[in-house]
Amino acid sequence: MSFLTLTDVTKFYGANCVVDKMNLSVEKGEFVTLLGPSGCGKTTTLQMIAGFADVTEGQITLDGNDITHAKPNTRGLGIVFQSYALFPHMTVEENVGFGLEMRKVSQPARARQVADALALVHLEDYAKRYPRELSGGQRQRVALSRALVIEPPVLLLDEPLSNLDAKLREEMQFELRQIQRTVGTTTIMVTHDQTEAMSISDRVVVMQAGKITQIDQPYNLYENPQTKFISAFVGKANLLQGEIVRHENQLFIRINGEYFACPETHLPQGSQAFVSLRPEKIKLTPLHEGLLNGRIATRFFLGSQWLYQIETKAGLLQVVSSNSDTEPLQEQQETGLTWSTQSLRVLP
Amino acid sequence: MNPFKSNAPWLLSGPAIALFVALLLAPMLMTTILSFNVFDYNTGIKNTYTLEHYIAVFTDDYYYEVFWRTFWIAAVTTGICLAVGAPEAYILSRMKTPWRSIFLLIVLAPLLVSVVVRAFGWSLLLGPRGIFNQISLALGMGNVKILYTEWAVIIALVHVMLPFMIIPIWTSLQKLDLGVENAALSLAASPFTTLRRIVFPQVVPGILSGSLIVFGLSASALAIPGLLGGRRLKMVATVVYDEYLHELNWPLGATLALILLVANLIVMLSYNKILERNYQKTMGVA
Amino acid sequence: MNKNGPLALLFNGLVISFMLAPLVVVCLVAFTPGNTLTVPTTEFSLRWFKAVFKHSDFVTAFWNSLWLAIAAASLSTAIAIPSGLAITRYQFRGRDALNALFLSPLIVPHLVLGVALLRLFSLIGATGSFVWLILAHTLIVTPYVLRLIVAASSGMDRHCEDAALSLGASRITVFWRVTLPMILPGVTGGWLLAFINSFDEVTMSIFVTSPVTVTLPVRMYMYATESVDPLMAAVSALMVALTAGVMLILDRLYGLDKILVGEK
Predict the structure, then answer these.
(1) Where are the domains of chain B?
(2) I need a labelling partner for A223 at 20 to 30 A (CA). Which of A250, B212, B258, C247 fits?
């Protein structure tokens, strides 16, 4: 049964539709991420769930209760803001304990719960510090612990990791997931970073221009993107365009005169189609031994991988190959490329 | 906070609005009306109306002289403040900490000392026992009379107004991207050319702002011409003072005060328009 | 050209001397043992300072100014806080006009304000009323407080208020526990700036004070136009000392250059 439900939720700013009839059901304990480029409406949706933005039309229900027009200080949700929004004039302890203070929890009980919450994020020793004395990552954890200590039904995260540097971000992604699993709180996160969304979430909700384009588990989203936009936005993809041709019960796609075996699709014979091919699904072979030949235009060393941009008859293809013990290819070198038919995704 | 409740901001500003309406807008209106009241030396302000005060001010040579003196003193003060303040602001901006803060503070701190004290201090310096006269006597140049001349008023006004010129210019300079200056230098522009063609145009809004403030404040100054101008050197403010507190001819005083206010506004608006048009042409919208 | 040459430093030195000269000379003359306005070189005396404290007119005027400044600063802060919050937190038609109205006492010459208020007071029988004098000073100093509060309020992270709300705080609690502490530097800096501006004010006060409510600067002005002796210097020196004290506190609390110049 859905724990948090959005039914036809719509938001207009003046004549501008920012969120368009959004429908979403989140299960208890789920970690759902709203993913999309800036302006897609994901933050506005979060603000409506939190109560900081009015809902123009539609309904939001939490555990069976209609909270659509409830004031933000009555919803009892835990929120972590992008800027962390820690109270600068209060210590870490006082920050984390604020929500409990508002709930009139007695001082000894408060102290205990705050200590537990800080222990959860490994900041027990920092209780008496002020936010200005903490690093970005530490502030983020204090913000998280402040939101969790009140045992909210839902935890809302607004781009919680975007202010951290790359390395710290990676670490925090795992920690965040771990904490969420330990505590089991239903969580909704907003981000524009797709690696973040994919690595932490149970389900990813891709949004564009106020609408949901796809909701899926990360793996499915990656492997079976429903639109051109999603396939390019989530992970890297080679987008090829060609004509569907059926020959002796076999399906092919003709790109620039070359025929490539193509997986089953409902698209009729002769129609133009887009296929997506992930760079890591293309294997390099000796010349003339693959489906296609190509010349390395540029190559990039990414540490664990080599990224090759290869000119072929089918266009400029990106190929990623892991930095194993085989000799990497040089620029201007010619090579063969191959992939399995099932790696091609025909976009509907 | 929710910006959607439309009554809250008006309720919050209510007390301040009440104060301002009662003590600013209403009195201004009353004074405007007052300027049209008839005044009789024997019976005081009467309830009939006339244009005679305005006519007197615009036709009598005495008032013309006073307004003209006020205007040129304010203009000279503004000019000197610009000539001294702009370079000083520039020099300060080039200093390193802590000197920069220290000197900035010394230059600006006199703002917080009452103008009476400052005017009095200048009367000491510029008077017969003051340092300037001592130097002049020591050099054998005889007594130099500065006090109770226009220049005493101008010097003291410059002292009071200089911070008002420096602050906006300083603010403009702070917003300057030093990289742009260095870029010009690296492209073989001389330091002077860089100043003239790169730095100066960006500081124009500060100069404009400072000039308007200084001019407006100088034209309406009371304490300084009162203490340093003596009985004969009248500026608009001191004439108003005389009319109100000695002659008791309030309507005439009100007329003068309002004309000063309007003249101020006109100068500000036209100066603003001219320079802004020039500025916008070269720099785009600030 | 990133360094100041010797010519520039000399220029700076001259400007600094110019700015300090009248204050220095006033403070020096205050210590003269004689009866004339000369800078004491061999002997220094406190006699004129003692004379100030015996001069009942000046003492009364001082207390008037002090209470007036405290009252005006407090009242203006009290009305500037909600107004400043209204201006920075809400988008509403007339916001810019309201902001301009509240800052207008900075542009209207104090001469004109003095004259206008004199007329008002005479019509409503408020001449000689200390309360109305307080209101007049409040009007004049409100822009100073408002500017600092608006700066502090726009500079703070608004999400802290949202966070407090989400944690269950009522609007009033959010104001007391989160907003006010976060804008406190602006509030206290504003109060002090308002205080000193009220204490110093002379041009408007000349018109709206009565012999009973006369303030220190007005008293000094009257005295200076009538007689010239070192008593005036001693009073002035004391005022400079008071101002310096307030400046020190302002600097400690807020940063004097930030207040005078504005936030960078």
Answers:
(1) 35-109+153-283
(2) A250
pTM: 0.85
Do A220 and A242 sit in the same domain of this protein? no
Residues A36-56: tens digit of each pLDDT: 998 899 999 999 999 999 999
List of chains touching C (3+ CB pairs within 8 A): A, B
- Cβ pair A87:C167 closer than 8 A: no
Q: Is C165 in the A-facing interface, judged by CB distances under 8 Å?
A: yes
Rg (CA), chain A: 25
**Which chain C residues are within 8 Å of B122, Cβ to Cβ?**
22
CB contact under 8 A, B23 and C79: no
- What is the dotted CATH code of the domain comprising B35-109+153-283? 1.10.3720.10
Q: Which of C159, C170, C177 sits opposite A83 (nearest CB)?
A: C159
- The CATH number of the domain holding residue A190 is 3.40.50.300
pLDDT band at B276 (very low <50, low <70, confident <90, very high): low
Q: Which of residues 14-33 of C touch B (CB under 8 A)?
A: 15-16, 18-23, 25-26, 29
Average pLDDT over chain A, rounded to whole?
91
Phi, psi torsion values for C114, nearest 5 degrees: -60, -50
Cβ atoms A99, A156 nearer than 8 A: no
Q: Are residues A71 and A220 in the same domain?
A: yes
Provide the domain limits for residue A286.
236-347
As for the ipTM of the complex, it is 0.88
What domains does chain C contain, in order, with CATH numbers?
63-226 (1.10.3720.10)
- pLDDT for residue A348: 75
Peptide bond before B98: cis, by omega within 30 degrees of 0? yes
Mean pLDDT throughout B2-21?
82
Task: Judge whether residue B286 has pLDDT over 70.
Answer: no
pLDDT over threshold 80, residue B191: no
C96, B11 contact by CB (below 8 A): no
Q: Are residues A16 and A161 in the same domain?
A: yes
Same domain, A117 and A204: yes
**Closest approach of chain B CAs to the CA of A209, in angstroms?**
24
A17-39 as b/e: b if 16+ CB within 10 A: bbbbebebebeeebbbbbbbeee
Residues in chain B within 8 Å Cβ distance of A11: none
| All chains having 3 or more CB pairs closer than 8 angstroms to chain B | A, C
Rounded distance between C-alpha atoms, residue C197 and residue A224, angstroms:
70
Predicted pLDDT of residue B282: 61
* Pairs of CB atoms within 8 A across A/C: 64
Q: How far is CA C119 from CA A215, B227, B241, C207, in A?
A: 73, 25, 13, 10
Looking at residue C61, its pLDDT comes to 94
C-alpha B90/C-alpha B88 separation (Å) is 5
Cβ-Cβ contacts under 8 Å between B and C: the total is: 270
Together in a domain, A28 and A153? yes
Same domain, A163 and A34: yes
**Shortest alpha-carbon distance between residue C133 and chain B (Å):** 11
On whether the CB atoms of residues C233 and B124 are closer than 8 A, the answer is yes
- Interchain contact, A78 vs C162, CB within 8 Å: no
**Alpha carbon of C250: minimum distance to chain B alpha carbons (Å):** 11
Asked if residue A336 and residue A194 are part of one domain, the reply reads no
B39: enclosing H helix or E strand = strand B37-40
